[in-house]
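User: Predict the full complex structure for these chains.
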Amino acid sequence: EAQVTQNPRYLITVTGKKLTVTCSQNMNHEYMSWYRQDPGLGLRQIYYSMNVEVTDKGDVPEGYKVSRKEKRNFPLILESPSPNQTSLYFCASSSTTTGVHTEAFFGQGTRLTVV
Amino acid sequence: AQKVTQAQTEISVVEKEDVTLDCVYETRDTTYYLFWYKQPPSGELVFLIRRNSFDEQNEISGRYSWNFQKSTSSFNFTITASQVVDSAVYFCALSETRYSGAGSYQLTFGKGTKLSVIP
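Assistant: Here is the predicted structure of the two-chain assembly.
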């Protein structure tokens, strides 16, 4: 079954404690990205990756890091989380091999609370 | 920069009514893609449709239909004979190609329209 898997689904952490949210896809997609969803703001892109070892900033990258060492995985790293990073996070992947951006498959979301 | 506007923050309809969700976009690209996603109360994002900028044909899928008009930069979504299960937040999104060396297919979302269908 084609899917994007995020872990954990829920996380409560304290300010400053480094954390990683994992994301894995099984569709051999080139393109992966992270979004955060906040009330009244919709989804905003944090980082994206066009392929292995190719990453770039989205609209709200401050406070986040990513890496793309393997095609299937795209972890989101918060080195020093702060309360304003409390949000619902989505990982997404899509294929771009034909030059067409196909539908994005989304993970189930990670609800992060930073206290 | 690309932008998507969903002016309706919340809509409530009575079951079996028709409802149209508006989406207006801005882009400088001639090649772009438009999407609609549904987010039910359970939270996941469900893909509904993709449309490219060269295909202005309207599309119908069951009770769902989409009206794409380049002249007004709009991609509106209509649900006919709404049902309680249609209650969700609906997002319109735009993807354009932005070349920055590596290239980009950034997906820009509107802020969403929360649809409540009352039995």
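The two ends of chain A are 36 Å apart (CA to CA).
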